[in-house]
Amino acid sequence: MTVVNTPIAGGGKTAAARRWSRKDLTFDKVSFMIVFLVIPVIAYIVFVVSPFVQAAYYSLTDWSGFTPDMNFIGASNYLKLFEDATFVKAVGNSVTLAVVLPLITLIVALIFATLVTIGGPSSGPIRGLRNSSFYRVISFFPYVIPAIVIGIIWSQVYDPSAGLLNGILTGIGLENFKSFAWLGTLGVAMPSVMFVIVWGLIGFYMVLFIAAIKGIPAEIYEAARIDGAGRLRTAVTITIPLIRDNIQTAYIYMGILALDAFVYMAALESGGGPANSTLVMSQQLFTTAFTKGNFGYACAMGVVLALITLLFAGVVFLVNKLTGGTNDVAE
Amino acid sequence: MTNTITEAIVTGGAGARITPGRKTRATAGDRVVGGASHIVLTLWSIVVILPMLWVILSSFKTTKEIFASPFSLPKVWNFDNYVNAWTTSGIGSFFFNTIVVVFGALFLTMLFGAMSAYVLARFQFPGSRLIYYLMLAGLTFPIFLAIVPLFFVLQSIGLLNTLPGLIITYAAFAFPFTVFFLFSFFKSLSTSIAEAAAIDGAGEWRTFFQVMLPMAKPGLATVAILNFVGLWNQFLLPIALNTDPEKYVLTQGMAQFAAQAGYSVDAGALFAAVVITVVPVLIVYMIFQRQLQGSVSQGTNK
User: Which of A144, A172, A195, A280 to mutate to test the interface with B (most CBs of B within 10 A)?
Assistant: First the structure.
């Protein structure tokens, strides 16, 4: 789930680590090593690592998947991808999601977390609002609902004629919304989908940031207050720099999730939305592979998706480093 | 002011929320900011809860009533939709399959994840660095890259469209996270106890199962909760690798039911199916919300 940057073994011999020598080769030790490490790691390689490597290879072939025929065609799939207007559009949409979603979600989550932890009165000990745990419990709840069910709920809420949203809007006198198609109108569909994703994840990041802010010693806030810093100033110059590594981790998670977005789209815009305005890479990949049976081409899309994911993580690391953070992920 | 400072020093350090020892006077500014904050957070809570309440309300209405008005109350409160959803959608079998798959995978990944993490944390041997990079790759690369070849891997060993195939795949993809988390946990455990066990004649197996594993309980609980939520929500793996409707898990079953309900216009049953899916989770959430939120902040801020 998280990118924990702890080197497994290697470097520095710690007291915990022991070296193997010949006299260790008893039945107990050998069977122990085989069951504890060799078997799980082999299974992991077969089911996780090898498919990644195979995908890279298949992406260079014209394999359809249903026949054993497979010709090595070099980079043609990739060249074809750049000319595939639908795929280029999907890349654009995915990148938009990866830029916009983390920004909105994390800013709102950070504001909520700040209110809940240190938003209380400006005199007396530093504390949050009254009854703030109520807000935390409610906001977090969508995290435990499967994303597909969140999508189904919202596709009903957005329903043009019988949906909750248009019901409320016409109820307060906005007759224009009587049968407004939130998910079927160009320019509105994408923001509508984004809102659903934000709705589902704000609580999760709020809880994450609350834990991070609670880790900051109260004295620091006291000192800032004595020096006359207001709420906004405190949040910007104290909270954010002190939890920047948590923000970085959260940004990468959220970005990876946004680059996927498959589940939400499957529930809300399974057809790619009006004029493909919500079509994302993952959807296009899935259709190309499992509906059209174009496996080599789909693997090339997978490689592009993976590269964009790595690039995204790299950019986030770089930005954090350039603006003065450490390079470690949330220590 | 001086009072405030001493109080902060006395109570400080432990974090931000300490009950005030005395009444503090709120300034006008405090009241405005506090009021505004409460309004914003309350509005957000309504945005979160309202769709749920509406789904519950709609689940008792007939399809005709649903299309007539989004707010009307049902004429007759009955469980017809629930009966329909349960019998026609096959939600009961989806539930059963999900429980088998999720708990099977959870058991496998926790057992082998804990074992591997323990070995990696306690022993040095050639190749451990390589294993580290393999795990990191599994955490970073999108499953989408693997999905097409994975389909053929499962097909070639005859596990495509089977629950055991799904269990192994789920467990394999949850494995790197489990190992990473428990690795740092086992590192932090004192080794003197394991050494004492060895001196007392316990073999490696016994040391692990009777000494180290019980000591790792808090870490195991955290990872298990996070894995459970992740596996329960898994969607891509089943829809790509498990296309036999009899073996559907809940997430893909719901997706299919939603698509069908769109054509047959049985909106009432769809709402009921959503409620059936969410309520067990809601109950578990209410009971475990403290542990769950604790796990999230531990698992991700580590």
Answer: A144
A249–B301 CB contact, under 8 Å = yes
CB contact (8 A) between residue A52 and residue B12: no
Chain-chain contact of B148 with A145 (C-beta, under 8 angstroms):
no
Residues A111, A29 share a domain: no
Global ipTM: 0.83
The pLDDT, as a whole number, for residue A188 is 93
Search chain A and give the residue with CA nearest B26: A121
Which positions in chain B touch A305 (Cβ < 8 Å)? 142, 144-145
Instruction: Output the pLDDT for position A264.
Output: 94
CATH of residue B259? 1.10.3720.10
The rounded distance, in Å, linking the Cα atoms of A194 and A188 is 10
Q: Which residue has the higher pLDDT, B269 or A90?
A: A90
Q: What is the CATH number of the domain that holds A308?
A: 1.10.3720.10
A4 against B102, higher pLDDT? B102
Q: Are residues A176 and A27 in the same domain?
A: no
Q: Is residue A63 part of a domain?
A: no
- Asked if B142 reaches chain A (Cβ–Cβ under 8 Å), the answer is yes
- The reply to whether B47 falls in a domain is no
Q: Give the mutation candidate from A3, A8, A131 for the B interface (greatest B CB count, under 10 A).
A: A8
Which residue range is the domain that position B165 belongs to?
A: 90-265
Task: Tell me, rounded to whole angstroms, the distance of Cα A11 from its chain centroid.
Answer: 31
What pLDDT shows up at residue B207? 87
B 229-288 near A (Cβ less than 8 A): 229-230, 232-233, 235-236, 239-240, 250-252, 254-255, 258-259, 267, 270-271, 274, 277-278, 281-282, 284-285
- Same-domain pairing of A48 and A126: no
Cβ contact A267–B255 (<8 Å): yes
Evaluate whether residue B157 is within a structural domain.
yes
Q: Is the predicted pLDDT of residue A298 greater than 90, yes or no?
A: yes
Q: Which residues of B touch A270 (CB under 8 A)?
A: 259
Kindly tell me if the per-residue pLDDT of A174 is higher than 50.
yes
> For chain A, what is the domain count?
2
Query: Mean pLDDT, 10 residues at a time, over chain B (302 residues)?
Result: 36 40 60 84 93 92 81 82 82 90 95 92 85 86 90 92 94 93 84 82 87 86 87 92 90 86 73 87 79 72 52
Q: By the CB < 8 Å criterion, does B291 face chain A?
A: no
- The boundaries of the domain holding residue A54 are 23-58
Nearest neighbour of A125 by CB, restricted to B18, B54, B69:
B18
- Pick A55's closest partner by Cβ from B145, B226, B252: B145
Is B172 inside a domain boundary?
yes
Question: Has residue B51 been placed in a domain?
Answer: no
Q: Which of A2, A115, A140 sits opposite B37 (nearest CB)?
A: A115
- pLDDT on residue A98: 94
Cα–Cα distance for residue pair B151/A317, rounded to 1 Å: 33
Domain count, chain B: 1
User: pTM score, two decimals?
Assistant: 0.85
Q: Write the pLDDT tens digit of every residue in A199-230.
A: 999 999 998 898 888 888 888 888 888 888 87
